[in-house]
Amino acid sequence: MDPRHSMLFLCEGDAETADSFSGSSRALVTTLREFGWRVRPTDVLAKGAADLLSKVLTVHPVRAHWSARYHYGPMGHALRSARARQAVTAHPVGAPVLQIGATFDIGASEKRLFFYCDANAAQGARGGEYSTVTSLTGRELKAMIERERRAYHRAAGIFTISECLRQSFINDFGVPPERVVTVHAGSNLRRLPPDAPRQSSPTSTPPTILFIGRQFERKGGRTLLAAFAVVRRALPDARLIVAGGQPNIGELPGVSVIGYIDPDRQGPGSVEALYGSADLFCMPSHYEPFGIVLVEAMLHGVPCIGANCWAMPEIIDDEETGWLVPPGSVEALASRLISALSNRPRLRAMGEEARKRARARFSWRKTVARMVEYMEHAETCRVPMATASSARRRGEARCITTIAKRRFRCSLPMRIARIERETDHEI
Description:
Rossmann fold; 12 strands; globular; 6-stranded parallel sheet
């Protein structure tokens, strides 16, 4: 096979399952293979002793800070990078590498490197308390941004999930605009709904709002609850279904919390029934790099309400397929919900427009087609080949030892040496 159509796919987690990148890795790998590419997925996550060491050396009394340091700090970055570089060394010359996110770095290489990203550190820094990277200290965040900057400038191309993110790469990282391409994303549903208008809900059923999201706070769940209390005063029979997680909200009038829906265990029909019960989908996120669940709701013919920020305006056509409201505004959201639920025929018409828009604009085949078109015409990266694999492993081990020494002030040199040997073996 032509090496140009043999791709190394680097990501965190098993790309063949829904556990990596919320299922988007699997969708990309599957679709690339449908396009005729030979894709070799590689999990770069550290395992065993190396992973345990990373957890120990990033420990912090504040759990959010510990989690951020573990995932975004230099230790985890070095371990993931070492595994990625091993995979790159064995990859054929001339064959491209597609990397998901920038929490690791393949280093200088003659291989053509492309990124697919749903966020970056600079954009995350603007997410405030709703972004995990803001749990880092200012110094840690600056170091993370610089690590990302070095990696991005080695890339032959960067594929972004939104135009909003594309502008961040250009403005925050100085990547030339011609090397950053918005390709969007498709849905991660196990089964697409039929390409036909949805059946109308009986007018005898109560007007229903659906919210789906595991990260309840970030996705505007509290704002929605406050707005729904106002809605209930105007429409006493209105109901709100909360799915995707188990937020601690107690028992509230008209609110049903159904938790996570597992289509693998419960069947794809369970997801279709959930969307079929809703007149309106609402997710007024405070920080939302894209919002694939909005696309999935639209594919089911359900109009959406989102916040007028981040990438949500790229998905929702205001007043046509749903509405956009100011982020965090309970009053504006409540007013829009009451108006929308009071005109269910209009909701059905908007839902049909939403379905058509989602079908036309957001699919993994369209995403991959844009990626392939760019890759086939991209220039080969003009960076030198990295050093040998063994030297890289020794370099990563030295890096890890340095971090350990800083943490423990060299008080346990023999223990550090043992950790170094274990880590070298693990890498």
